[in-house]
Amino acid sequence: MLLHGIFPPITTPFYPDGNVYFKKLEHNVERYSKTPVAGIVVLGSTGESIMLSDEERREVFKTARAAAAPHKVLIAGTGMESAIETLRLTEYAAELGYEVALIRTPHFYRNQLQPPNELAFYRFVADRSPLPILIYNVPPFTAYDMPAEVVIELAEHSNIIGIKESSGSIEKIRTLVESTRHIKRSAPVTETFEAVTPRMLQSGNGADAGGELVSIGALAGVAKTSPPKVSSAAISVVGGIKTRQKEVGFQVLVGAAQKLAPSLDAGAVGGILAFASPAPTACYEIYAAHKERDKELAQIKQERITAAAQRVGGEMGIPALKYACDLNGYYGGPPRLPLLPLTAELKTEVERLMADIRN
C-alpha cells in the first residue's frame, strides 16, 4: 500500500456528557475526504483511543469507514498492550475494509519490554494480520522509544510496511531510511501515482468493469506467492482502474508537523500529523512543495505552521487540537475526562496561533 502524503489522525467527537458523537464523526470524515490528504487515521493517539471501550472503538471504526471516500487510504489504530487483543482489533478493522493497521509499541510494562519482547510482539501480529502493519513509535505518550536497530530488523518482515516515527529525531528518521533502503517492495498506484485501495476497486464502475479484484496484501506490496515482476512503466487494468507499480520499500512517516519539512528532506515519505487534524491543507502544502522540489516554498510553508504545531499539538495536546478543529470547520468539541477543555485564556492563545491557518 502506498503511504506517501499527509494523513490526519482524526479526533473522536464527544457529547458534553462524554458519549461518542457519531454524527459529528461522519461530518468530519466526509470533510477530510474532500481535502488533499492521502488518507485518514482512525483511533490514533489524537483519537483518544485509550479512553474508549472495545465496543466504542468498533463503532468508531465502522462509522468512519462508512463516511470515508473510497480513494482515501484508511488506517486503523489497533495497537493494544497484548498481542492477542491487538490482533483481534486488527482483524475487525480488516473486516470493515481498512487498508493498514497502525500499531503502537506496548509500553505499560516497559522495564520488561526489551528488544526480544518487541520483536516477538510485532512478529506475532504481523504473521497473522490480514492487514499490513505500520509500527507506531510515540515516546511522548508511551515513555518508550523503540531502538532504531529493532525497527530495522522488523522492517524485513513482509507484512510490516513502515513506521510512524514520533520521537522527534530527524537523525533517527535518516538512519531508518538509509538502513532500510535495500528493502524492495512495490505497490499499485493510479495513473497519477495515487494509492489504489480495495474500496476504490469495489466502488463505482471499478466493480462493474470486469477487472479482477486484488487482496489488501497485494496492494501493500505483500503477496503469499511471488507475483510476476512488473515494470514501473507497465499499465494494468484492475477493477476497471488503470494502475501501474511504484517502488515503495519500507515507508517512514514522521509524526511531528513542526519537523515535517526536514523529515521529508531526511527521506520520510509523508506524515501522520496530529496538527493535520485541524489544518490538513496547511500540512499538505509543505509536502506538495517538497514533492515539487521547491525547498524554498516548503520552508516558507513550514515556518507558517511551526509555532502553532509545536504549541497546539506538541504541548497543549488534544483539548487544543479539538478547539483548533472547531475554529477550522471541523467538530472538535470536548475531550473525554480526565482531559479537560481549555480555559478561556488558552482558547485565546489557540485562536492567535491559528489565525493565519484556516483550511
Characterise this structure:
- The chain has about 350 residues and is α/β, with parallel strands linked by helices.
- It has helices at about 20-30, 55-65, 85-95, 115-130, 140, 150-155, 170-180, 200, 215-220, 260-265, 280-290, 295-315, 320-325, 345-355; strands at about 5, 40, 75, 100-105, 135, 160-165, 185-190, 235-240, 240-245, 250-255, 270.
- It has two domains: about 5-185 and about 250-305, Aldolase class I (TIM Barrel), CATH 3.20.20; about 190-245, no CATH class.
- The chain contains 14 helices and eleven strands.
- Strands 1-11-10-6-5-4-3-2 form an eight-stranded parallel beta sheet.
- Strand 2, helix 2 (about 55-65) and strand 3 (about 75) form a beta-alpha-beta unit.
Continuous helix count: 14
The biggest sheet, with number of strands, parallel, antiparallel or mixed sense and barrel status, is: 8 strands, parallel
CATH topology name of the largest domain, in short, is TIM Barrel
Query: Structural class, please?
Result: alpha/beta
Summarize the structure.
The protein has 2 domains: 5-185 and 249-303, Aldolase class I (TIM Barrel, Alpha-Beta Barrel), CATH 3.20.20.70; 189-247, no CATH class. It has 14 helices and 11 strands.
Q: What is this structure's SSE topology?
A:
Elements: E1 5-7, H1 22-32, E2 39-42, H2 54-67, E3 73-77, H3 83-96, E4 100-104, H4 115-128, E5 133-137, H5 139-142, H6 148-154, E6 160-165, H7 170-179, E7 186-190, H8 198-201, H9 216-219, E8 236-238, E9 241-247, E10 251-254, H10 260-265, E11 270-272, H11 280-291, H12 295-316, H13 318-327, H14 344-353
Parallel strand pairs: 1-11, 2-3, 3-4, 4-5, 5-6, 6-10, 10-11
Antiparallel strand pairs: 7-9, 8-9
Helix pairs in contact: 1-2, 2-3, 3-4, 6-7, 11-12, 13-14
